[in-house]
Amino acid sequence: MGARPLSEQTALVSGASQGIGLACAKALAEDGARVVIMSRREQSIAAARELLLREVPGATILARAGDATSEADMQAALAFAHELDGRLDIVVSVVGDPSFKPLLMKSLDDVNAEFALNFDSAFLAVRHAAPLMSAGGSIVCVSSAAATQAGWGLSIYASAKVAVERFVRAAAFELGGAQIRVNAVRPGLTLPPDREEDPAFADMVGIYKRETPLGRVGRPEDVARAVRFLAGPEAGWVTGQTFSADGGLDQGKGPDPMDAMFGKDVMDRVRAGQSPV
User: Among this protein's residues, is 209 annotated catalytic?
Assistant: First the structure.
């Protein structure tokens, strides 16, 4: 049996305690990479490591607790990964979370917090990974189908993800001379089976299924496959790109789950440009 495609490579995945980040870590480990997984909570990232070790026997998986929006934490995690074998080959920035709320219901503090989570985390990953990488390094950031759509409730989240995609293009241009590739993946609504089946998500899931041409929400492994391609040697001639892995969702106007979340009376006032209260 020949060497696996990512043998001898070292990867760091942020936001890796669950969902897309966890699936990305698994995909990289299955192809032979040493993987450092990062997330804020010590207990959850330790549990994720144990799960990965069970699912990928023989893999090298290490856990590092840290906040991907903290410059010190990100630098420390990247240095930790680099010190494993004196190299850092792959970084996947997964941190991000949509906050469904119409813009007339948001404050400037909300905006700053959303940008910190969804943009700053990607910037810090690229900024501090690149100096540790040699030629052939690959960085993949996770965006969102919301970046291409006009839809209710995700104005700031979508703006932050647009910023990530434009930043990916700029970073790829600036880092090309170092032979470091920077790309992004754009998921649609992505849920593990237990969350898709949670009654609390039923209305939203139904709306997204109807708006998605392939008729289902995504699974974390759907997105992880695209990330794995961009991270690996198969995509050695690809940089500055954003790949959609969203079942075709970004072809439409975007789902509108606002009535289900805030009530039709409230949303009727917001759509009329009035205060929601």
Answer: no
d(CA 165, CA 42): 30
Of the listed 17, 26, 161, 208, which one is catalytic?
161
Q: Point out the catalytic residue in the list 14, 26, 93, 157.
A: 157
Q: Which of 276, 272, 250 is nearest to 150 (CA)?
A: 250
Which whole-number Å values give the CA distances from 53 to 9, 42, 44, 61, 91, in the listed order?
Answer: 17, 17, 14, 7, 20
264 counts as catalytic = no
What secondary structure does DSSP assign to 151-179, as a single string?
Answer: -TT-HHHHHHHHHHHHHHHHHHHHHGGGT
From the candidate CATH numbers 3.60.150.10, 1.10.3720.10, 3.40.50.720, 2.30.110.10, the one assigned to the domain spanning 10-193+219-253: 3.40.50.720
244 catalytic residue (yes or no):
no
Domain boundaries, the chain: 10-193+219-253
Q: Phi/psi class of residue 161: alpha, beta or left (left: φ > 0; alpha: ψ in -120 to 50)?
A: alpha
pLDDT in tens, 73-126: 999 999 999 999 999 999 999 998 888 888 899 999 999 999 999 999 999 999
Instruction: Considering the candidates 144, 155, 159, 244, report the single residue annotated as catalytic.
Output: 144
Question: 63: closest CA among 74, 77, 75?
Answer: 77
Of 19-28, 85-94, 121-130, 205-214, where does mean pLDDT reach its minimum?
205-214
- Can you read off the two tokens belonging to residue 3? 């060497």
pLDDT in tens, 42-85: 999 999 999 999 999 999 999 999 999 999 999 999 999 999 99
The structure's pTM equals 0.89
Q: Which of 133, 118, 27 is nearest to 68 (CA)?
A: 118
